[in-house]
Amino acid sequence: MKVALLTMFNGLDSTYSLVNVVAEQIRMMLNDDVKPIMLVSENCPIDQREGIFRDPRIEWRKVTNQRNGTQIHWKDYSNPEATVHDTFSAEADVVAKSLIQHLSDVDACIMHDIHYQGWHLLHNVAVRKAQKSLPHIRFLAFTHSAPANRPQHVEWPLSARYTSMPNTKYIYPTKSGLPALAKQYNVSLNDCFAVNNSLDLMNYASEEVRSLSRDIDLLSPDYLVIYPGRLTTGKKFEKVASLCGAIKKTKGDHIQVIFCDFPSADIDSETYKSFIRFEGETHGLDKKDICFTSDLEPFKNGFPRRGVLELFTFSNLFICPSYSESFGLTVLEAASKGNFLVLNERVPALEELGQNLNAYFMKWDARNFGFDTHEEYHPSEEAYLQEHAQNISHLMRENVVLNAKTIARNRYSPDWVWRNQLKPLLNS
Q1: How far, rounded to the nearest angstrom, does the alpha carbon of residue 320 sit from its chain's CA centroid?
Q2: Where does the pLDDT of residue 48 fall: very low under 50, low under 70, confident under 90, or very high at 90 and above?
Q3: Of 196, 210, 291, 412, which sits with the fewest C-beta atoms within 10 Å of its C-beta?
Q4: Are 36 and 59 in contact (CB under 8 A)?
Q5: 203-230 per-residue burial string, b: 16 or more CB within 10 A, e: under 16
Q6: In which domain, by residue range, is 247 found?
Q7: Which GO molecular-function terms appear in the entry (predicted)?
């Protein structure tokens, strides 16, 4: 599918918010192997483009902005009682001819504020003229500001700002604005749809985290658990996997466990990994729900510490069932990035730190001062895990800050917006 984005940008400065919206839509398409075509004004300096706009998979097409060798100067016709300039119709014909040329081979066209902005009235009328020669194209008309009040009487061509176009769906960033959008363009509410602006966290991530994200989904899980440490039995990796399995089995939600591990002389790494996976799958995880960063070639000897701290900004649940700790610095790191803390109450250092951080406690085997503890669960460890899985899930959902963090990461990610809102409209 070929999708054109009709923006008529004169520049690509990221301080202009609409440039960032378009950039994120381009990322969505490229990530799904959809070919984007950028239609910009011929005055747009594309040799100065940065970021995603430099991707070679984007095709750039410049829409003419000249008539008879003279530059067309756009005028703001936001006032519905204005009178268009004398050469308006002739200029619209020239632009329409250019649009026909550039859109003839595309399947869908996303227009950004072309129907809304007064200074785009010329392009608004031009695209309507061009559409008569392009009956196969599906149009999506995005409006990015509060819809304008529809005047009682308005003459053509000023009425184009308040008139629907055939084979076109009208888009607004939120559902709350759809009734006003329908009134502006005098269309049925059934022709109006919400496509949220997205938060592309990966655009600001380090190269280590981006590399990891190419193999592991960091955005969509309801529970994202990061557990860093040397791959030794003392860190009780298998207990993390078991509790996560119980949470998934109890709630049925998407959970991803990432062990940022590095080798230990205590035990063969592959042997221990197999045991950890077995425990996780026994208690409810799927094979794909567990990842060891050491299984990825760039991180076979360990994931960078600064990357671990960054991963905690994505995660929302930190579980530390460690057998022994002198302090527990990773607990502080996870807490500082807004994670729900589940700690081993039997380890004195974790109990002390957890009390200060209002952590949730569970009981696992531990090394104390001068003696070791061994837990027995009644009626079973399975029942114990299930009970605490229920409690943890409930507390996390009731925590408004933690819940907002999770929703912002997964519900407003570019992938979610693309697959659930934008792509279905392009295909329908």
Answers
A1: 28
A2: confident
A3: 210
A4: yes
A5: eebeebbebbbeeeebbebbbbbbbbbe
A6: 203-411
A7: glycosyltransferase activity
Q: Report whether pLDDT(144) > 80.
A: yes
Regarding whether 286 and 155 lie in a shared domain, the answer is no
Stated pTM of the model: 0.91
Specify whether the CB–CB gap between 23 and 49 falls below 8 A.
no
* Residue 98, CA distances (Å) to 94, 262, 267 in order: 7, 58, 68
Q: What CATH number did the domain enclosing 32 receive?
A: 3.40.50.2000
Opening angle at CA 379, ends 377 and 380, nearest 5: 55
Residue 203 has a pLDDT of: 87
Domains held by the chain: number: 2
Query: 147 and 254, same structural domain?
Result: no
Amino acid, single-letter form, for residue 145: S
171 and 228 part of one domain:
no
Instruction: Give the pLDDT confidence of 349-385 residue by residue, as tens digits.
Output: 999 999 999 999 999 999 988 889 999 999 999 999 9
**To the nearest 10°, the Cα dihedral for 179, 184, 186, 188?**
-20
Q: State the virtual CA torsion across 149, 152, 158, 163 in degrees, nearest 10.
A: 70
Q: Which residues pair with 384 in a beta bridge?
A: none
CB neighbour burial string for 110-131, b if at least 16 within 10 angstroms, e if fewer: bbbbbbbbbebbbbbbbbbbbb
**Would you state the torsion angle of the CA atoms of residues 231, 234, 236, 238, taken in this order, to the nearest 10 degrees?**
60
Give the pairing type, strands 35-41 and 138-142.
Answer: unpaired
Let me know whether 422 and 340 are in one domain: no
Q: What angle do CA 190, 111, 409 make, to 5 degrees?
A: 75
